[in-house]
Specification:
Layout: H1 15-41, H2 46-67, H3 75-101
Helix pairs in contact: 1-2
Length: about 110
């Protein structure tokens, strides 16, 4: 008894999809290059941290919209996923701020 293998058809490569993937990779590479440039040229501080957090969020939302296809969904779904993330980020920042405030009582 011989096992039969299914016939596999190879579809031709879609050049538009490949071009889109390279465009997305290029945009992410540019944002990352700007982050590295700022990391080595700016002094450390709150402004640099805020810029890094902002650029990281931009990259994260761009990745989610392109690779997880969220950009093509209904706006209500996008807001129902994005708004809680914003509140969670705000909560983490608020808790970190309050947690470090306790050290001022001991000085």
């Amino acid at each position: 008894m011989e096992a039969s293998t299914p016939k596999v058809e190879v579809k031709p490569v879609d050049p538009e999809k490949i071009k889109k993937i390279w465009r997305v990779a290029g945009i992410l590479a540019i944002i990352t290059a700007v982050e590295f440039l700022l990391a080595f040229t700016m002094d450390g501080g709150m402004l640099r941290n805020a810029i890094f957090i902002g650029m990281t969020l931009v990259k994260a939302f761009y990745i989610v919209s392109e690779f997880m296809h969220l950009k093509h969904e209904h706006k209500v779904l996008i807001w129902s996923l994005g708004l809680p993330c914003i509140f969670v980020i705000w909560l983490i920042i608020a808790l970190l701020n309050e947690g470090s405030a306790i050290f001022s009582y001991f000085n």
